[in-house]
User: Fold UPF0178 protein J0M35_17545 from Candidatus Obscuribacter phosphatis.
Amino acid sequence: MKIWIDADACPSAVRDIVTKAALRLSLPVAFVANKQLNIPANSLYSFHLVPAGPDLADAYIVEHAQPGDLVVSQDIPLAAALVPKGVVVIEPRGTVFTPDNIGERLGVRDLLTELRDSGMIGGGPAPFGDKEKRQFASAFDRELTKLMRSKAL
Assistant:
């Protein structure tokens, strides 16, 4: 089992939660980004620099993530590609993408993109704060526990 982080836009608080859990549980974490990041020095952590360009980090993760892995990403199209492969995907605000909700989430994302592009709505998500950090930590712990139990069976 491996934890993947779509690291280009991942809040540092989320990276901290993941790296601490990975150390505690001796799980490998792969950070994927199109720019250099400061990753703590540890043999459990790897960094994969992909060329700059749309969705190249996503393509790398789709190609390398395996069933039973866990991915942290706010990219809904990436989640839509991974969930059918048996990869657990959690976004930094704590939403877990599942086969039951990924279609709806993708549809809402596409609608909001259309509305933003047409100028009918503006802005983006609310700032990432303590509430979102707690929601992520809770969802991450819950999903990680499920994955580790299923591996132990």
Q: What stands out?
A: The chain has one domain: 3-152. The first strand starts at residue 3 and ends at 6. The longest helix spans residues 130-152.
